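Researcher: I'd like a structural prediction for the single chain below. Treat it as a standalone chain; there are no partners to consider.
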Amino acid sequence: MGTIGSVARTAVKRRLSSPSVQPAAEPGQLADGRRRVAIEAVSPEVDGGRFPSKRSLGERVTIEADVFADGHDAIACVIRYRHQADSTWTEAPMVALGNDRWRGELTVSELGRYIYTVQGWVDRFQTWRLQLAKRVTAGQDIAFELEVGARLVEAAAQRAQGADSGLLLKQAQTLRNASGSALVSKDLIDLIDRYPDRSETVTYARELEMLVDPERARFSAWYELFPRSAGEPGRHGTFRDVERRLPYIASMGFDVLYLPPIHPIGRTNRKG
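Model: Treating it as a single chain, here is the predicted structure.
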């Protein structure tokens, strides 16, 4: 019996020390586990974000990404962007194209670099709406579903500001007393969209850059000219001589004048 007990104790010790037995998850790990959205294949993205994409001033830029989650829950996502000189982010909504592909647009209105990324989260209210519609179509009892929706609206009221909080609380009570087909009003949908539950938001792994150049950088015709060759016989050219030739250069269809690097002229035979 002593030998059997010793073997049993040894087996228990081995089981407890085995790598397959994992310690209890920390609270932060549990929170990360609830972030179920995945974001991939963001475009434009040059060489995994190592280099900035390029656009011209005033251009309307399209951003796309694959955004999805496990299960059948509805998803919402946005583009987050800012100019490099700004500290605050601006958001633009993205719309579903199908097959987990999402698209949004932003306008680059300043020269320089823009920083952008994508965020996504499970839209609990939209998920509830879809489930409610299916139950109504199937003729099922929706009393429990209405209570769930009312609590989601009350949670949004806690996030709301000003008069919107009171409006949402009234909408929650209306849901509890709802009957008939028009269960979710457009006013309620608009209010909820202002205050989504983003506690489990996932951000794309990289902040990408976009270099915004003047519009002429998109396409232009360049003319190269040596200033000292713009003079007259026996006299080297000056910038004034080049300036007088600008109308002639423009008449040939050029819109950019390029001057090569200018160096001091050597004293011996004008070399160097």
